Hints:
Elements: H1 2-25, E1 26-30, E2 41-42, E3 52-56, E4 63-67, E5 72-84, E6 91-99, E7 105-107, E8 110-113, E9 131-140, E10 143-153, E11 160-165, E12 177-184, E13 189-194, E14 197-203, E15 210-211, E16 219-221, E17 236-238, E18 255-257, E19 274-276, H2 288-291, E20 298-300, E21 317-319, E22 331-333, E23 345-347, E24 362-371, E25 376-384, H3 387-416, H4 421-436, H5 445-457, H6 462-482, H7 507-522
Antiparallel strand pairs: 1-25, 2-5, 3-4, 4-25, 5-24, 6-12, 6-25, 7-9, 8-9, 8-24, 9-10, 10-11, 11-15, 12-13, 13-14, 16-23, 17-22, 18-21, 19-20
Helix pairs in contact: 4-5, 5-6
Amino acid sequence: MGRFALLLLLAFASFQALCFAADDDTAFYDSFDEPFDGRWIVSDKVDYKGVWKHSKSEGHDDYGLLVSEKARKYAIVNELNEPVSLKDGSTVLQFETRFQNGLECGGAYLKYLRPQEAGWKAKLFDNESPYSIMFGPDKCGATNKVHFILKHKNPKSGEYVEHHLKYPPSVPSDKLTHVYTAILKPDNEVRILIDGEEKKKANFLSADDFEPPLIPAKTIPDPDDKKPEDWDERAKIPDPNAVKPDDWDEDAPMEIEDEEAVKPEGWLDDEPEEIDDPEATKPEDWDDEEDGEWEAPKIDNPKCETAPGCGEWKRPMKMNPAYKGKWSAPLIDNPNYKGIWKPQEIPNPDYVELDKPDFEPIAAVGIEIWTMQDGILFDNILIAKNDKVAESYRETTWKPKFEVEKEKQKAEDESTDSDGLSGVQKKVFDVLYKVADIPFLSEYKLQILDLIEKAEKQPNITIGVIVSILVIILTVLFRLLFGGKKQPKVEKNPEVAETSNNQSTSGEKAEEEEEEEEKEGTAAAPRRRRDT
């Protein structure tokens, strides 16, 4: 019995030690179990009219911070009791977010702000408030990424520069709760996790991982260097000795009438292609004086459906064998070609060598977004000095919810379509999003994401999208193996530009896209012309 009591005592002591360690390593945590009033300060800036609500996550008794209205700017901030240094040991940034109504165009990222001595106030929190790190999902148009941006001060110039993580992971495309984790290590490494799974590993000081790099280039193009007036960049020039052949007719048309064509038998010369609809009647409320003379709408002439054609017959056009077009001299190598001019390189006055980033401390956590979507729920925001603490929170706060939501989603997918097609398509889309994150496809990530989003909106084109993505993959592999510069032809939407203040989820852009879609949906299809 004494032995059993000793084991219980040791277990209790270990549990207490773990709790104290968790408390010591937890710099900030908000579960939103209680209303946020008093802890979080809503911005008074006039642009930020979005209403925050303390709300339950759908299907759970767990509360979070809710974006409650569409097409609004939101800003809210929580000041930490003590600033958190990013220079001492590891730092873990973690939070949960759920797109309860899906996400077409909106951000759900957090900003980790510098001390207020940097020039900001909680009541005036906005997109200009200085931050150290911006982290979290963002999706709108061609933008689909989990941002990680470090705002770093160049020790020489004193200028703060936004350094964006290259090739960040994509945002999960469902309505489930997901947990985002950024682990900053003392060896300059940063790891990005989604749902506890590592999606990206990078080094703060590597030019391959951040754009622009934290360590500037040693040399830069001389801004005062000018291209000489006699510098010839033309690799090819028209042959000055070439002469147009005597038989070259520049006036010959590209097409001529086919003199051998014969009018098809049964062609109805006297029948129009369209006739008045005989079943149409003038509306009773039609007023000739106000509405003008009423005319019956036109319909296709039924007599033309069985005939080879109606109306005046004209010979079809064919390519003119004598056509040569405008003559131009053939190109030859330019004897004066000097190559593409570039300014000379000079030492970069802002160049500096770094052993570690000069991180600014985190004094507050803020959410400042512009979203076209409502139903975005934030929860369990954590800043810790130990990744084991973050892992513990994922296991106890996020995972139980996620498992329930996943099972519910699975049941809904199965009930939506008896053959399980929608569930299969969802799995296909999940795989395609992972394909888009493959490093050697990074050059084509935006095109691939655009194709996936089109397929999600129009499931009937899923097979075509898969084929298109396979073409991209095969083309890239061919280029890697055999060289060449030819790129796959993929239709794409213009990429949503990221402004310097990180408002990458442009509501105006989304509204323009919606208007274009409406125009496309309502435009009348042109009438098919009959072949002659």
